[in-house]
Amino acid sequence: MLSGTIPHQMSYLSSLQVLDLAQNNLSGRIPPSLKNFTAMANATKAMENTVIFDRSAVISKSADVSFPVVVKGRKEDYTTTLSLVVVFDLSCNRFSGEIPVETMDLVGLQSLNLSGNQLTGSIPNNVGRMAHLETLDLSSNHLIGAIPTGITLLSSLSSLNLSYNNLSGAIPSGKQLQTLTDTSIYAGNPDLCGSPLPVKCPADEPPQQSPRAGVETRIDDSDMFELYLGMGVGYVVGLWGTCALFLINKSWRIAYFCFFDDVADKLFAAKERLRRWMCPRLQG
Which of 13, 52, 194, 206 is exposed most, by the fewest CB atoms within 10 A? Predict the structure, then answer.
């Protein structure tokens, strides 16, 4: 079992395509200089002389060998197609600190496994640059913050594991990401929300009316009904009360109709005076 830190001299292995240091006792930070793995940063993948760094040996593919590689959680033996495999596996160690953003420059990677460490910080926003990535495992660390939307750009991604971190916020939606519907991918992150998890994000939930607002609405409706009822009853009572008063008191009834007759006569006289005043002026 290996221990200690990764020496910076390892970055000189420019032809390295498979780095497997899983299940050791390595610690410290992941060196940013590992971005100098030219073969891993080569999107075409195929190299004439593939170099493999395993926990047990450094092997050149120029030799006729069969080499086991763990991809998508399965160990498979590669021989003639090994030159097409690009793997970066530092899982099950004691690495700490943040994931170097320079790691995302290894755009030829097919599998990136940093699970089972003590990594902190957030997932780099430029993770979407790794267009050939098929497997991404960052589980069982101490990562925080939101899942970057750049992860939706990983069109080749078929295996994802972000479980048991401290991630939060909405799970991004994207064409490829929507095909990964296994909720265990996000297990152990209680502050995550959105599909495929059953927990809805606050922005997706319809606004709920507070109980007090409902009571106030019912009170307002009741008050309006009582107002209209009072107005109707008042109008009926007032109308019939006036009619009953005129029926009972003859002198009031005569005075009432005389008053309206007098008003009608005055209006007619005013109209006639106006007509006589306007006619000569209109004719002239």
Answer: 206
Token reading at 23: 């299940």
Site of tokens 């097919």: 110
Q: Is 201 exposed, middle or buried (0-12, 13-18, 19+ CB in 10 A)?
A: middle
Residue among 186, 134, 174 at smallest CA distance from 157: 134
Q: What single-letter DSSP state applies at residue 99?
A: P
Provide the CB-side half-sphere exposure for 80 (13 A, CA): 0
CA distances from 74 to 71, 122, 153, 159, 273 (A): 5, 27, 24, 11, 111
Q: How far apart are CA 168 and CA 164, in angstroms?
A: 12
Q: What contacts 24+ positions apart, CB below 8 Å, involve 260-268? A: none
Express each pLDDT in 80-132 by its tens digit: 445 567 889 999 999 999 999 999 999 989 999 999 999 999 999 999 999 89
Architecture of domain 3-202: Alpha-Beta Horseshoe (3.80)
Closest by Cα among 57, 7, 2, 4 to 31: 7
Distance CA 116, CA 164 (A): 10
Who's near 23: CB < 8 A, 6+ residues apart? Answer: 1, 55, 91, 92, 93
Is residue 75 helix, strand or coil? strand
Per-domain residue ranges of the chain = 3-202, 211-283
Task: Convert the pLDDT of each residue in 38-79 to its tens digit.
Answer: 888 876 654 444 444 555 544 444 445 555 555 555 555 544
Torsion of CA 98, 140, 186, 189, to 10 degrees: -80
List the Cα angle 252/257/260 in 5-degree steps: 125
